[in-house]
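Board notes (copied after class):
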Amino acid sequence: MASILGLAGESGCGKSTIAYSLMRLHRPPALISEGEILFEGQDVLKMDDDELRNFRWKDTSMVFKAQ
């Protein structure tokens, strides 16, 4: 069974920050200094490049806002 998570909120409340962190798409100076992001028992922060690529396009996705 698929799970769906949607983020909604006012402009500037941190939706994009959470989504980028969840998918490890954040760029410096953004930093996740501790903790873990668990998906089906696996820590996203410890995934290697191949695992991360598979996770991003098989298990999760992000719809970017049009500018």
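Comment from the instructor: The beta strands are 38-39, 42-43. The radius of gyration is 13 Å.
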